[in-house]
């Protein structure tokens, strides 16, 4: 991991996003570029931002708190920004037709979908998930339903497996709630079939960081799932622990220590997946996208909180 490159990318992204954008969003955007091993291109990013501003109405989440995250996703795509945005809006429309309300999370799901036809399976998986967790399953689960719904396998089986993983981890002392639900969803990434080894891996990884005195907060539960699915080894885990400690000392992460851990994990996953064969490439791209979605979902929540605080104090 190159800390200088992380600091440099963050600094360049911050210049483009400006002082009004929360630094954690600038960090999430920097991570999107870094996790694809791409140099941040300010001109391309600003051009994508302009396309969104020109096309989207004032009420669109793409124009407000998702603006820079959406622009980064669009720059990553092979198509030009206009075509990319057109697809996002087609996906969003199909999600609405499938029965979802229009929210920041449907836009986030639309950014992750490859084609509008995936909306039906997204809704199907979401409804199956609701059967197991009626009150826990909410808008925040839609991006996960979009990515996991497009993977092969029976939706009922995947949702049932998520529920089994959730219960297993709860019994092992994990705190119940949305974060644990997201972790259980990610654990089905590779297969909709229940695999006790997957639970064992998550527990071992969690214990490893505990022993290393790296605090895993609830918001970081999903990150354990990414590590379990990519089957990172002990060397990579030690590297993540060391890099987390290094990043926590830097000026950027001093205030956002929980983001130091997820940044270290993203970098380790890039390195880990690069050494695997080419058949792992589509897997790694989807997984990176899912991890970025998780970070973006966190940012949406952070932004919503910031907006509501600002509104309350100004009212």
Which properties best describe this structure?
315 residues, mainly alpha, 15 helices, globular
Question: Can you describe this structure in just a few lines?
Answer:
Helix content is 70%, strand content 0%. By secondary structure, it is mainly α. The longest helix has 34 residues, at 281-314.
Descriptive account of the structure:
With 315 residues, the protein is mainly α. 70% of the residues lie in helices and 0% in strands. The protein has 15 helices and no strands. The chain is globular. Mean pLDDT is 87; it is low at 277-281. Pfam families: DUF4003. This is DUF4003 family protein. InterPro entries: DUF4003 (IPR025062).
Proportion of helical residues: 55-70%
Q: If you average the pLDDT, what whole number results?
A: 87
Separation, N- and C-terminal Cα atoms? 45 Å
Uncertain runs:
277-281
> DSSP helix count?
15
Beta-strand content? under 5%
Count of DSSP strands: 0
């Amino acid at each position: 991991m190159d800390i200088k490159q992380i600091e440099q990318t963050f600094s360049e992204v911050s210049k483009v996003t400006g002082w009004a954008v929360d630094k954690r969003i600038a960090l999430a955007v920097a991570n999107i570029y870094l996790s694809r091993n791409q140099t941040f291109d300010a001109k391309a990013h600003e051009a994508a931002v302009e396309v969104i501003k020109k096309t989207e109405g004032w009420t669109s989440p793409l124009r407000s708190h998702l603006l820079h995250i959406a622009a980064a996703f669009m720059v990553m795509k092979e198509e030009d920004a206009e075509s990319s945005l057109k697809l996002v809006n087609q996906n969003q429309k199909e999600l609405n037709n499938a029965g979802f309300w229009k929210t920041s999370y449907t836009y986030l799901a639309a950014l992750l979908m490859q084609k509008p036809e995936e909306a039906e399976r997204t809704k199907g998986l979401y409804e199956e998930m609701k059967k197991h967790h009626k009150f826990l399953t909410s808008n925040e689960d839609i991006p996960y339903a979009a990515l996991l719904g497009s993977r092969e396998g029976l939706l009922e089986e995947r949702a049932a497996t998520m529920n089994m993983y959730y219960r297993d981890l709860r019994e092992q002392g994990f705190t119940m709630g949305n974060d644990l639900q997201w972790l259980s969803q990610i654990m089905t990434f590779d297969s909709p079939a229940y695999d006790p080894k997957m639970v064992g891996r998550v527990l071992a990884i969690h214990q490893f960081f505990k022993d290393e005195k790296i605090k895993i907060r609830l918001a970081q539960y999903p990150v354990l799932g990414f590590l379990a699915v990519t089957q990172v080894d002990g060397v990579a885990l030690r590297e993540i622990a060391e890099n987390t400690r290094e990043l926590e000392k830097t000026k950027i992460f001093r205030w956002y220590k929980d983001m130091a851990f997820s940044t270290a994990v993203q970098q380790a996953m890039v390195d880990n997946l690069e050494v695997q064969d080419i058949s792992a490439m589509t897997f790694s791209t989807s997984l990176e996208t899912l991890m970025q979605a998780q970070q973006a979902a966190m940012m949406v929540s952070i932004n919503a909180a910031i907006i509501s605080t600002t509104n309350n104090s100004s009212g």
